[in-house]
Design goal:
With 131 residues, this protein is mainly α. Helices cover 59% and strands 0% of the residues.
């Protein structure tokens, strides 16, 4: 096999999920390795934030994050695993202390919460904590 373009594009989990759903729905039942890989990957992705994302929410989020001059890989990580705390932003954004102010980090978190509200985890009720 010849590799024509070794790094043509990076796909988000959402794009992979959507593509595998189409593969699963359009083709007759697969047998063997392709069926196993498709099934296992879909099973994994169903438990990630990408299941609740939409193409529109991703596009709008990326557009609103543009002023922060994040690298493509950083944007991809934010889309695949949306951070909910400033600490998570530090793990994702290279040299975040130099590139982003605390206010900018809060703005980024607000943008993420706006476009991906399903990832914001609410703290458990006090009743649940005491059990």
């Amino acid at each position: 096999m010849e590799i024509v373009s070794s790094n043509c594009a990076s796909l988000s989990n959402y794009e992979v999920f959507e593509h595998l759903q189409k593969v699963k729905d359009c083709r007759p039942k697969h047998k063997g390795q392709l069926a196993t890989i498709t099934y296992e990957t879909l099973r994994y992705l169903e438990n990630t934030p990408c299941k609740e994302q939409t193409a529109q929410s991703i596009k709008e989020c990326i557009r609103e994050l543009a002023p922060f001059k994040l690298h493509k890989t950083e944007l991809l990580m934010i889309i695949n695993n949306p951070p909910i705390t400033p600490l998570e932003i530090q793990f994702i954004v290279e040299e975040s202390e130099e590139r982003l102010t605390e206010d900018q980090v809060q703005e980024i978190l607000a943008i993420i919460a706006k476009h991906f509200p399903h990832v914001i985890k609410t703290p458990p009720d006090e009743d649940e904590q005491s059990e």
